[in-house]
Amino acid sequence: MSIFEQRESAIKAYCRVYPTVFDKADNARQTDENGKQYIDFFAGAGVLNFGHNNQRMTAAVVDYLQSGGVIHSLDMHTTAKRRYMEHFTETILKPRNMTHRLQFMGPTGTNSVEAAMKLARRATGRQDIVAFSHGFHGMTLGALSATANQYFRNAAGVPLNHVKHFAFGCDKPCPGCELGCGMNSIDQLRAIYTDSSSGIAPPAAFLLETIQAEGGVKVADKDWIQALAQLAKEVGSLLIVDDIQVGMGRTGSFFSFDDLDIDPDIVCLAKGIGGLGTPMAMNLVKPEFDDHWSPGEHTGTFRGQNLSFVAGDVALDYFDDDALMNKVRQDGETVLKKLQPLAEQHDAINITGKGMIVGLDVGDGDLAKKIVAQCFDQGLLIASCGTGGRVVKLIPPLTIPDEDLQQGLDILAKVTDSVMHMEAAA
Amino acid sequence: MSIFEQRESAIKAYCRVYPTVFDKADNARQTDENGKQYIDFFAGAGVLNFGHNNQRMTAAVVDYLQSGGVIHSLDMHTTAKRRYMEHFTETILKPRNMTHRLQFMGPTGTNSVEAAMKLARRATGRQDIVAFSHGFHGMTLGALSATANQYFRNAAGVPLNHVKHFAFGCDKPCPGCELGCGMNSIDQLRAIYTDSSSGIAPPAAFLLETIQAEGGVKVADKDWIQALAQLAKEVGSLLIVDDIQVGMGRTGSFFSFDDLDIDPDIVCLAKGIGGLGTPMAMNLVKPEFDDHWSPGEHTGTFRGQNLSFVAGDVALDYFDDDALMNKVRQDGETVLKKLQPLAEQHDAINITGKGMIVGLDVGDGDLAKKIVAQCFDQGLLIASCGTGGRVVKLIPPLTIPDEDLQQGLDILAKVTDSVMHMEAAA
Amino acid sequence: MSIFEQRESAIKAYCRVYPTVFDKADNARQTDENGKQYIDFFAGAGVLNFGHNNQRMTAAVVDYLQSGGVIHSLDMHTTAKRRYMEHFTETILKPRNMTHRLQFMGPTGTNSVEAAMKLARRATGRQDIVAFSHGFHGMTLGALSATANQYFRNAAGVPLNHVKHFAFGCDKPCPGCELGCGMNSIDQLRAIYTDSSSGIAPPAAFLLETIQAEGGVKVADKDWIQALAQLAKEVGSLLIVDDIQVGMGRTGSFFSFDDLDIDPDIVCLAKGIGGLGTPMAMNLVKPEFDDHWSPGEHTGTFRGQNLSFVAGDVALDYFDDDALMNKVRQDGETVLKKLQPLAEQHDAINITGKGMIVGLDVGDGDLAKKIVAQCFDQGLLIASCGTGGRVVKLIPPLTIPDEDLQQGLDILAKVTDSVMHMEAAA
Amino acid sequence: MSIFEQRESAIKAYCRVYPTVFDKADNARQTDENGKQYIDFFAGAGVLNFGHNNQRMTAAVVDYLQSGGVIHSLDMHTTAKRRYMEHFTETILKPRNMTHRLQFMGPTGTNSVEAAMKLARRATGRQDIVAFSHGFHGMTLGALSATANQYFRNAAGVPLNHVKHFAFGCDKPCPGCELGCGMNSIDQLRAIYTDSSSGIAPPAAFLLETIQAEGGVKVADKDWIQALAQLAKEVGSLLIVDDIQVGMGRTGSFFSFDDLDIDPDIVCLAKGIGGLGTPMAMNLVKPEFDDHWSPGEHTGTFRGQNLSFVAGDVALDYFDDDALMNKVRQDGETVLKKLQPLAEQHDAINITGKGMIVGLDVGDGDLAKKIVAQCFDQGLLIASCGTGGRVVKLIPPLTIPDEDLQQGLDILAKVTDSVMHMEAAA
């Protein structure tokens, strides 16, 4: 028995899907200890936007380590943190006229969501947060209350209160979903929050992803999200965008909402912002709300991750010009072009997405599972998401070489076609 | 205005206490950008047990980065993770006959506590957790419910339910504390849990630190903690030890409870286990409880931190022999010998601790604040904790050179003596 | 200063609306201490279905008192209780093939709702209850969680959890209401409860009034309520009908749902069932759910109100034949005929109702208040309800003499017309 | 099968203990339908302080009914209500210099507790209420949170939050109880509420019975209750006395706390105040807290029970002079004199109480059950209470004739002695 069999917790999951031991990694490829290579369309669940072991970043980190730079600093000031904050402000915030401040917390996405929820409650004096069906926001108790999936919710062991879920406003109907999303949901929400006998009081905040990644790559309708932002203002609620998985360039611009004409009060970031896959989380908060914090009210030991500042600083270079974002948009089209024929051939298949996050809804979790397993056998790492795991999700490194993208798509298309045909024949 | 003034969140705290910008660090010393050196008795809030930029670790990490090892792996298997798990099992668990499994989660202490609470609730079908006054367990909503400090609790914005607090069993009375700790508290707890009309039902778990670090370096009485462990068994509750700050060698052996004759069902670890200050968290869970997990029920993006596995693996070397632990015990005595005269001269001063965590209770938060500030001016980083911040806490790197320890103690003793005299004169 | 000014709690409310001191009452009339008579269209908030001081009932109660019958009996058996239970079973349950058992509890409507909620949670092992916007179910903490009105909810002082509110399915659109009621709400609910990522798990029960009385006389659509009952079965939830205000003959048959083809698992009754206005509450519970109770789990001192059994027994006589119910239906038509012209003359007016509960929505709470006040001056007791108090509600005694009904309607019509014209002129 | 077997809810309880059908009642005697008479030491769970069918009261009620007085009036003013309020103010409040206002609510004890909890939360802006182990405060969700007994709590089906339980300060140690009551519990509470790191914030109110009736006739120590009242003031919490079972003369004066030198902010009354056993509940509230109510925030249909005002007014006559209270104190001594020998003969027996509430703790619920059953057979109605039902509780009508009291005590003493001897022999 290996040590994994002997001693690893029964909670292990991805290692069941990808039953091997990985040893090396480079950009969009991982190599296991037997030397077998895999193209990676999963990218560490959306962390590795700039590829495994991005060489510009590893070089910077090695330099930093060898120079004796401070590695761990809580929320003390360091020169590395200053460089990161200046770069982020100049490259990302100022061009967008965003006045937001930067808050660092425990280096996990769930922690950034917890901090955002706390602040919204503090700033409004209200308790309820509105989140949306199919939303995913994390696993710690506060964030879990906002996560919609019952499998995760059932693990809480206590009631998950103070969050209400409503239907998400997808940009087009999802097959099999009758939650009633779309524009009329906003009118209903407004009616609920302005009728003092609805039983439901206005929330501290509306918390949402612009694209529900774990929820099955559900893309918010632009009109819907604008109307929601407007409603939030009307009823005195904050708008919190959880851009943890789809921010940092994933959709073809830094923020997923850059083309949505909304102005979130808080933006939650994590995953990709540390560049190299070392942990980091950061909230962008408008000063008028940030001022509600008292010093140290939401602490955490690993707030000052200087290796992440160093690698994250290199990552910001990718946003100093348009090269990578152009590639993302082009690659996104390449993906759609390759997958669209599948949707035309198989009625059950539905394709959603934006930039380099694409969902291939095959209508059934068991089918998706087969596709994922056969892809793995053929050297492609890919994962499923959505209700019952029915959506195969593509989130490769944004830096993926063309040939890797093509090869990965070839495997995926062939496997999917074969699995769907076998299903139809059965 | 610096970027910190312009853009850093109002929540910032330690940088207010240490108003400078750090640039380099080496073992027990940090250097700011003006070249001023500081001896570090704070060690990143107990993370850097093996010193800043421990050279054996940075070398291993640099090698790993240059060899193209997998950096980020979620909960997939990697060769680095295997090495870590094997080393931990051989060095730490087997010699203690501990059958516990290793669970990795989001790399923060708060996340490990959340996971432990979930599992205890799942395994018992109960909701309440018992935690203790002055306990600190984290900032996310589940862990925050167990954290006692009102300043942190008030930031929740929602009621913190499903945790009940009782008095902690200190090994000696704390000046000014009348919470009624000590052995009789166990009889009271047993009475509460066996009287069906007490209004309080038996909990899923008792969650405690053996030494309440943030709570003011309160050391649990050995008889009390054994009786508590016994009570937990009697009433069908799990015993969870949060060893996040005082484990990993801090008290002179790997676990803080190695000499307490208790057998915790779950041990929460974080902070020091990543060796270098890169994030990592791990729970040790008895198999009979671990089996209650279903795959992936408590996930998190940054579960597979291979740089932490690599550095953490080097950290485990320190436990292959007794050298470091012997030094910790000796240094602990050195500290006490140096500080004891202060307690003899100043009635208000009370000293607690074990190994290399020592608390200097000066009886008043404002005095402690002055001491911390004057130490900073004189080149010593140290922090306060406990109710109202009245306890100056010493948690230097375990690897601190003798001369740094002496020099730091000299500063601390002199500053404390001077502040206490001025106070007496005022 | 009167004793009321000196010593009555600031919470007093109806006595502010009707500023006099009542002395005598008889069927549909009350007389104040100055001898002024009032026609009563309010009937003790729907308690006095059989009129004030119903002479058959007072005679029976006087006889009972003079014979030394047991007055207070907790849940012990008495001969009076037996007579009541037998009469109720023969007259009400058996003709409808209802197998329900009778549960008596603390003699308030809110207590019957609390008991129903407890039992539904016990029987299903679930925590959430679904209630509906504009629903009213009581003031104690459990029932208050289901009551929609924010004014009442705000008085709780603690979060009201474990109840979710959805839009009620009115039989026609209510002016100014955009909550999105109607048939499609059922499809949405079904989608929510069958999508494991909606964030919302199936409830223990759906709790509703067939006509939301306090909510503004909103009448449920028959198709909607049948679909809801069907959905409850599909998702394993109980159907609880709160018939406290609109049962007991108010709509023209004993239960408000007699013509709706639904089969509620629990029916909550109170108000009118004690006949004379002495307190009593009773739940009808299907045996398969009732069996989940253990003895005495939901107790209450005043469960055995024998004066209410005696008067309530006389009240059941009214259901041994069709005379009263025919009168109710005819009187209901008389009311509508009289009020309909108001709706035709004033756009703002909307009329809803069934049998002898009729709502006159005048579109604005201040207008309704004026109407209520002028009616009082002219000798008519009537009250307003609904969001902001915009609906004038008619719930006279079912036994009201024709001339009193006519006279009351004359006052109401004239006052309303005058107030609406003055408003239009302003 | 009788109608009770066919149709009464499985929740029935007292009718299982007293398996007969009662028909008549007079002062301290009930007669079943077979003509068998029972002496009543239970008095409707403490409702019938003035005896079954008190003739002065039934006469007044019959007069009132025959005169056409208003029976049901919500919170409108009636002449009967005025008489009651004036009498109560003159006889009870003014002689004690109590400025309290009278608040009427739904006519159950649980409802009065709910109202008190709401108001305390409103007035302080805090959520937690402190209640005490073995306390009983009702069955609706808010009051149930304060009730200690797990059997009742388990029926809630949802977590009971926002109430914390501490050990009650009995005037002498209870056999088998190790909850640690007594004076030191106050110091512990003060420590908890003044230590900002205890994990427990000061409550909105301390809610307690001066004698825990259902909890096993546990009498509060006078020093303890005064210290608690003092602590409440110090930490800004209200003091709420639930005098529902032990007020209204039960202990030998109107309030149970008349000799305790405390000044409660809210007093909850119900049970006996309606005189005849018709429902009524009333809170006495200091004006400075009562002013926090907005009109109608805590409503209820049966707030204006004029039959209870009429009978309750007669009941107040008993407090216009000292005759009845003198009798209560004398009868209390008679009871103790009769029972004391039992305690001397049987080690397991412990006697507690004050005035005409006396507990005979026989050490074991099964023994108490046998005693209750044999007493019933021999014509004595008596009930058990306390943890596991181990305490036989005597609460006869205060108006009990001497011969009935003697005869009842004879039965009880003989039965108890016999059961205890058989137990000892077994």
From TrEMBL, chains A, B, C, D:
In terms of CDD domains, this protein maps to: OAT_like (cd00610)
Q: Which UniProt keywords apply?
A: Aminotransferase, Pyridoxal phosphate, Transferase
Q: Give the source's domain of life in one word.
A: Bacteria
Task: Give the main EC class.
Answer: transferase
What EC designation does it have? 2.6.1.76
The cross-references to PANTHER family, in alphabetical order and at most eight, read: DIAMINOBUTYRATE--2-OXOGLUTARATE AMINOTRANSFERASE, DIAMINOBUTYRATE--2-OXOGLUTARATE TRANSAMINASE
Cleavable signal peptide: none
Q: Mind telling me what this protein is named? A: Diaminobutyrate--2-oxoglutarate aminotransferase
Q: Name one GO molecular function term.
A: diaminobutyrate-2-oxoglutarate transaminase activity
Coiled-coil parts of chain: none
Co-factor(s) = pyridoxal 5'-phosphate
Q: Which family does it belong to?
A: Belongs to the class-III pyridoxal-phosphate-dependent aminotransferase family.
Q: Which Pfam families match?
A: Aminotran_3
| Organism the protein comes from | Methylophaga lonarensis MPL
Which SUPFAM superfamilies does the entry link to? PLP-dependent transferases
